Amino acid sequence: MSFRIRAAKPAAITALALSTLPLAALADQWQDIQQRKELRCGTFADVPPFAAPDPKTREMVGFDVDLCNALAKRLGLTAKITPLSVEARVPEVKMGRVDITVANLAYTLGRAEQIQFSDPYYLAKEMLAVKASDPGKSKADYKGKRLASTKGSTSELSIKMNGSEPVTFQDTGSAYMAVQQNKALGMVANTMTITKLVNQSKTGGVELKMIPEPMALQPIGIGMKKDEPALLAKINATLLELDKAGEINQIWAKWLGPNTEFKMVREDKVVPLSELKFTPLP
After folding, report:
1. 20: Cα separation from own chain's centroid
2. In percent, how much of the chain has pLDDT > 70?
3. Mind listing the pLDDT tens digit for each residue in 229-239?
4. pTM of the model
5. How far apart are CA 108 and CA 51, in angstroms?
6. Is 130 within 8 Å of 206 (Cβ atoms)?
């Protein structure tokens, strides 16, 4: 009995060849970005000073917007800013709707399972604000108490880690009002937000104070889709260049520095995550 071997059609050969290639060879996000010449950056929708619409121009402005533009410029690209809700920061980059998320995004174990992080460009603190008349002095004094935060944030995670009860809202303004209206005993947010709200409370409403002990320490980095090593390498290298050139410090000074209402000095440098000593949030 004889068998005749029929030549496969070119299309079939191509399909077979593609099916044997690793996924990484089929999709390189950095190449796609280069081809479109546009870096799609996800930022906060309305969380000043990181990203919020300018009251006059309605264009997005803030620390994260400037950092996106600086990254894109160094990479020879144009930045496209896409405003995101707090809880959408990870899903949007995970699904590829944005290339990177630059939105005060803290490294957590849960997020690291879904996306990859750049080297952090500063170490943030989650801080607790309560009414100035409250006798509490440490985070331990608020175990089991109702504390407000934005939904899906690391502030919410830090509340849970403290053994407190999170009461969540879509934005920090609502969390602040929850404390003012006695719906929560305190609120948790990053240092600059809490500093701003504590100062704001001194001129109207019930005065707040900041508890000195941080609720949590968290490295802030840029989020990207997993298994995209070329993009990760490019973003890390560019962050380091911006840091060495002093550009990140300039952006920081503009939005968060000593001449702003936050009066914060950036002491951190861009370093690999492995070099930091911290307890990651779940």
Report:
1. 36
2. 90
3. 999 999 999 99
4. 0.74
5. 21
6. no
